[in-house]
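Issue 218. Parser rejects a valid record. Input:
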Amino acid sequence: MNNCYVAIGLVNPKSPTNIGGVMRAAGCYKADAVFYSGERANRAMRFQTDTKDVVQRIALTAVDDLLECIPADADVVCVELVEGAISLPQFNHPANAFYVFGPEDGTIPQEIVDRAHSVVYVPTIGCMNLAATVNVLLYDRCAKLGFSADGDELIRQSRDTNNRVKVR
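Output the parser choked on:
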């Protein structure tokens, strides 16, 4: 996944818990940036729940319009339960992607969906919350495009300080 660009766009996220979970996913799966629109997140940011302090490494930027921050060479991929969308297992991720996610209590605006190169859904019974959906999407991207780190060294760097269990 070298020389790839991955950004996440959040449409009016509902809560700081969602944003904290998204930031943690962005850090785990090496996203480059997270953008969000709407006022709800700004009001709630003092309660932010980015437990791994990913915001120190990955930009979290408030924007008025997500369409204005899409890089020219990135494909827009909307992730939403909408009719006509592509099932995630069948989806081929672009190298440079701007993934857009709707709020838990709403949907991605039609003008963003119209701009999308692809619209993808995660095939579940019922819907997942925002942070869970971001995690699944980014994991799928890493699994399909190749994650650069693997093995015991990655485990030692990534695990919680209270975890010293080994497979024997």
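Fixed in the parser; the record now loads. The longest helix spans residues 130-145.
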